[in-house]
Design a protein that fits this description.
Number of helices: 8
Strand content: under 5%
Distance between the termini: 65 Å
Mean pLDDT: 80
Radius of gyration: 21 Å
Number of strands: 0
Structural class: mainly alpha
Low-confidence stretches: 1-19, 21-28, 170-180
Helix content: over 70%
Largest sheet: none
């Protein structure tokens, strides 16, 4: 049975219309902690879902599948990043840098190091190792976007019930477990979908943040090479 306590925690962020991880968009986010939270959520959300109807169940099944795929990609990414610790650390620290700031950071990192230990060749090795993971992550991002639309349709079709349950959640939270009213199945299924959506979006973004920095590094190298030729 789906863990209602976990759903409740996720729904706070859903109702607020933001990521489930505070400070997610900043480079200062503790990625070790974030990775652990995502890993835990992957396990706790599991595969179970509330059955409602053929149409709603199909969306739930797809979300379970996307969750499994995204969690697998995240696991592969963690393993790969652990093997390339210097690059992973560099990308984490410099995720929100401007081009000029990133150039300075690269020069600072490279200072006094032999060629094989400099950041550019290490990034190239990291990129080769992560290309397959990034491709899967991009495909997942597209699938996530499509499912967000499906979930929005369910929310629209059952807006009254969802609004009613959301409005009474504060009251039911004050009630004892014995007194707590049973959640309407379609609302519980919707909450599960949104919880899974929060999880996969956060995991997908975490990987995309590094991909963006790698793309920026490659662009900088291209600009430097063009200037050298001119």
């Amino acid at each position: 049975m789906f863990k209602k306590t976990l759903v409740a925690g996720f729904m706070v962020s859903v109702l607020a219309g933001c990521s489930s991880i505070p400070g997610f968009e900043t480079a200062t986010v503790d990625r070790t902690k974030l990775n652990q939270e995502l890993k835990t959520n992957c396990k706790e959300l599991g595969k179970d879902f509330t059955k409602v109807s053929y149409a709603v169940d199909n969306v739930s099944k797809v979300m379970v599948s996307i969750q499994e795929r995204q969690c697998d990609v995240l696991s592969d990414y963690r393993t790969m990043a652990n093997k390339h610790g210097d690059v992973a650390g560099f990308l984490e620290v410099n995720a929100d840098k401007s081009d000029e700031e990133l150039r300075v950071a690269m020069d600072e990192f490279d200072k006094g190091k032999p060629q094989r230990k400099k950041i550019r060749p290490q990034v190239e090795a990291y990129k080769k190792a992560s290309d397959g993971i990034f491709r899967k992550n991009v495909k997942l991002a597209a699938d996530i976007a499509l499912q967000a639309g499906e979930i929005a349709l369910i929310a629209k079709d059952h807006a009254t019930l969802i609004a009613k349950e959301s409005g009474t959640s504060v009251i039911t939270n004050l009630m004892s477990a014995a007194e707590e009213a049973e959640v309407v199945p379609v609302v519980e299924a919707y909450n599960e979908m949104k919880a899974r959506m929060d999880l996969v979006v956060d995991a997908n973004k975490l990987i995309m943040m590094d991909k963006s920095t790698i793309d920026q590094l490659e662009k900088l190298d291209s600009v430097v090479a063009d200037k050298a030729r001119s």
